[in-house]
Write a structure and sequence with these properties.
- The chain is α/β, with parallel strands linked by helices.
- The protein has 2 domains: 228 residues, Rossmann fold, CATH 3.40.50; 96 residues, Orthogonal Bundle (Tyrosyl-Transfer RNA Synthetase), CATH 1.10.240.10.
- Helices cover 51% and strands 10% of the residues.
- It has 17 helices and 7 strands.
- Strands 1-2-7-6-3-4-5 form a 7-stranded mixed β-sheet, with helices on both faces.
- Helix 4 links the parallel strand 3 and strand 4.
- The longest helix is centred in the C-terminal third of the chain and has 25 residues.
- The model has no long low-confidence stretch (mean pLDDT 90).
- Iron/sulfur cluster binds next to helix 14, helix 15 and helix 16.
Length: 377
């Protein structure tokens, strides 16, 4: 049997999420679900499926201790549905405790290494990306948003880490890659461990919500946390993993590199509707067959739209699955309902985001001066 492939910069293929435990050591989320008083839709619908040391974060929530939630976005374009999933997880964990601080990195160094995007170009996208996450519900009062290229703490740490890794170690985790990508991985480790520096309150649990394909970064970072424990007292970062959403074009994963495989929060309602209208489905060849055999929601990207993002609640998501599997629901009407939900969401999101562009700029400026005041330069 082929091994699953986890490539944070390319095409990942995950056929069996349970195998990630034996292959990569990702622990199942299920034994911890009862600890959530108010599980998020990602948790209750089984989209978040795995974790490393998540119990440490739940302990911090229960004991009102500080913790950080850290992730970022590569500003190589607009916010896509994968970015929304990570953002939804960050916002959810931020909402669990007044002691939670979100750190959100604008990964412009990675955008340069992976996509050749200049810092000037990514700077323009960054404000829009921050407005997107604010519109989704991030609380700006407990958030620090910064550009990797400007944050000297991150840069200094990545330089320190570069002495502790060898080419072979990076090759074992990522395969043979350009040095620029290896460097961006070390910078990302700096991002994840920065909240534990003494000037930012010292060692604390840090949760990184990611898609399963980003696990190589988590493994590297946990390894570095252990190597530099005596110097910094780092607590190995915790992580929670979400499944990858099926591509509207029928592949295993939506990808920014294939625009028609999904849509972004920048697409107009009409553009998104067009992509859903022609999307691959888990439907049968004829109406008669679908009525008789039922559809296959588990291989259907339209069902993923409901389950991952747009179902009104868990009951709605389950009903779509049930009606599809029993052949009560046909693909045409199902797509039409999904289009209505997506149009409503995008129209509302665009209004909110446009109103938050000023606040996004302010948050970047405020975070910059906060980080500088903690001894940035
Ligand atoms: S009825 Fe809906 S969920 Fe089922 S296969 Fe068709 S589009 Fe997918």
């Amino acid at each position: 049997m082929d091994k699953d492939r986890l490539d944070p910069w390319g095409t990942s293929s995950i056929k069996d999420y349970s195998r990630l435990q034996s292959e990569f050591g990702i622990e199942p989320l299920a034994p911890l679900v009862s600890r959530f008083k108010r599980p998020s839709p990602h948790i209750s619908r089984g989209i978040d499926f795995g974790q490393r040391d998540l119990g440490r974060i739940l302990d911090a929530v229960d004991n009102h201790k500080p913790f950080a939630v850290m992730s970022g976005i590569k500003p190589d374009g607009v916010f896509h549905l994968g970015n929304k999933m990570t953002a939804d997880d960050m916002i959810y964990f931020q909402s669990l405790s007044k002691k939670a601080t979100v750190y959100y990195a604008i990964a412009d160094v990675e955008a340069y290494a992976d996509n050749g995007l200049s810092y000037q170009e990514s700077s323009k996208t960054a404000v829009r990306n921050v407005a997107d996450i604010l519109a989704l519900g991030l609380d700006p009062d407990r958030a620090v948003v910064y550009k990797q290229s400007e944050e000297m703490k991150v840069m200094k740490m990545s330089t320190i880490f570069s002495r502790g890794v060898t080419n072979n170690m990076l090759k074992a985790i990522y395969g043979e890659r350009q040095i620029g990508l290896y460097m961006s991985a070390l910078i990302q480790a700096g991002d994840i461990l920065m909240p534990q520096l003494p000037e930012l309150g010292g060692p604390k649990p840090v949760l990184v919500p990611v898609g399963a394909d980003q696990d190589p970064h988590i493994r590297l970072c946990r390894d570095l946390a252990a190597r530099y424990d005596s110097e910094f007292g780092f607590i190995p970062p915790s992580s929670i993993y979400h499944k990858l959403q099926l591509a509207l074009t029928g592949g295993q994963k939506m990808s920014k590199r294939i625009p028609e495989s999904g849509f972004t929060l920048d697409n107009t309602p009409a553009e998104a509707s067009g992509r859903i209208r022609v999307a691959f489905t888990g439907g049968r060849d004829t109406v008669e067959e679908q009525r008789r055999l039922g559809g296959r929601p588990d291989i259907c990207p339209v069902y993923d739209l409901y389950r991952f993002h747009f179902a009104k609640d868990d009951e709605h998501s389950e009903r779509v699955h049930r009606e599809c599997a029993k052949g009560v629901r046909l693909c045409g009407e199902c797509k039409q309902e999904a289009i209505g939900l997506v149009k409503g969401f995008l129209t509302d999101h665009h209004k909110k985001r446009d109103a938050l562009m000023g606040e996004a700029k302010d948050l970047l400026a405020k975070s910059r001066s906060y980080l500088s005041s903690t001894g940035n330069q």
